[in-house]
Amino acid sequence: MTPEFAPPSDQALPIWPVAQGAPVPAGAGAGDWPSATGFTGKAGEICLLPDGKGGLAGALFGLGDPAHAGRERFAFARAAALPLADWYLADIPEGLDADQAALGWLLGQYRFIRYKGAPRPGARLVCPQGVDAARIQAIALGEFLIRDLINTPASDMGPDQLEAAARALAEDLGARITVTAGEDLLAQNFPMIHAVGRAAEQAPRLIDIRLGEEGPALTIVGKGVCFDTGGLDIKPPASMGLMKKDMGGAATALGLLRMLAGTGAAGGRRIRVLIPAVENAIAGNAFRPGDVLTSRKGLTVEVNNTDAEGRLVLADALALAAEEGPELMISLATLTGAARVALGPDIPPFYCDDDATADALSRAATAVADPLWRMPFWQPYEPMIEPAIADLDNAPSGGMAGSITAALFLRRFAEGAGRYVHLDIYGWQPAAAPGRPKGGVGQGARAILQALPDLLTPELPA
């Protein structure tokens, strides 16, 4: 699907946004009709206004309690359920961010249609005055890409297909792409990516996309485990059911790249996206519990659980990225259940040693309703990731601080980057919410996009 606004038209119908408890604007000409129909202005509530001739004169739309901040601002996504027509904002009351309303509307248009055919056309919004339509559409398009990639089952989104999606995006953006696959991973020193993916029918690979020639460097590393059986430490069925989403980090990295290019934020910066794409499968040549792997960086890793494979493939990609010393490096990964236990599905933790970077990201996350929560690289837990017979342990025993120890593991391979941020995302919406239908969802991409001017100043022309 392509998110789009309606062109301006004299036939477009007015929408009057109304906060809960606020009076209906006099210009709506609604009279006693809203109270007679029980309209209160609660979030997402719609009151259609008759024109007295059997047609529609417009609609009231409930914004909810203005004291409730956060993602409820995307309640405007529910307005896409209005009758089929073109609509425009007749009023922008205090507290309504027109940009967020426009984005919410577009996000509310999303449907995953690959296996069900095209949905019926929906209501469209004329882009409000003062809103940069191209920017909002670029953000929505990046989010749609993330959702489509995550929602596609592994039968149609293995390493081959993920590479194809990356190549299509790179071609569309005029970016450069190289892919190292199969036995070439060993020849070019990516042993842990190879080890994790070698048992699958589709070869493991490292996808490397570059956009921009000059300026400060941002490298984004996305976990691309296209399906995770758990390997020889096989997952129970209840835990395996959603593992098509274990490439959510890679999907988010690609969606973020599209946002960066589409909004112009990539200008004056060098953007690199690295995706280790594998399937953690079971076969006679699968890597085993107790194996000791030697990483690209030279650090040895004892495999104490083959179901902690994501950090292994990320480690080789992070080590490669760090060799260039980018000013900022960000990893995105559906990495640990511990993060979900701590913060639930809505709030990904992020880790960063630099306070200014962390503060900028937190502010941006709040500003665009893309919530994140800072967690610590807790130094006293470092011994937990150091086993007896190797440099590192991929799955410390005890079950405590699982998200933190995973982040500490990754940080060992990010040394060399100017600043490093790790996001432990979920990538899935368990139940439908405004602008977020049940299924794959982007987490962190819009926050990073919003924060980027504070995180990485572009190189200006001389």
Fold blueprint:
Layout: E1 13-19, H1 33-37, E2 46-50, E3 56-64, E4 86-89, H2 98-108, E5 124-125, H3 133-151, H4 159-173, E6 176-181, H5 184-187, H6 191-197, E7 205-211, E8 217-222, E9 224-228, H7 237-240, H8 248-262, E10 270-280, E11 292-294, E12 300-302, H9 310-323, E13 328-333, H10 337-343, E14 349-352, H11 355-367, E15 373-375, E16 392-393, H12 402-414, E17 419-424, E18 428-429, E19 439-440, H13 445-455
Output the keywords.
Leucine Aminopeptidase, subunit E, domain 1, 462 residues, Aminopeptidase, 19 strands, nine-stranded mixed sheet, alpha/beta, five-stranded mixed sheet
Approximate strand percentage: 15-25%
CATH architecture of the largest domain: 3-Layer(aba) Sandwich
By DSSP (H or I, 4+ residues per run), the number of helices equals 13
Uncertain residue ranges? none
CATH topology of the largest domain: Aminopeptidase
Query: For the record, what is the CATH homologous superfamily label of the largest domain?
Result: Zn peptidases
Class by SSE composition: alpha/beta
Q: How would you state the average pLDDT, rounded?
A: 94
CATH C-level category of the largest domain: Alpha Beta
Number of strands: 19
Q: Tell me the helix content.
A: 25-40%
**The biggest beta sheet, please?**
9 strands, mixed
**What's the alpha carbon Rg, rounded to whole Å?**
24 Å
Give a concise summary.
With 462 residues, the protein is α/β, with parallel strands linked by helices. The chain has helices at 33-37, 98-108, 133-151, 159-173, 184-187, 191-197, 237-240, 248-262, 310-323, 337-343, 355-367, 402-414, 445-455, and strands at 13-19, 46-50, 56-64, 86-89, 124-125, 176-181, 205-211, 217-222, 224-228, 270-280, 292-294, 300-302, 328-333, 349-352, 373-375, 392-393, 419-424, 428-429, 439-440.
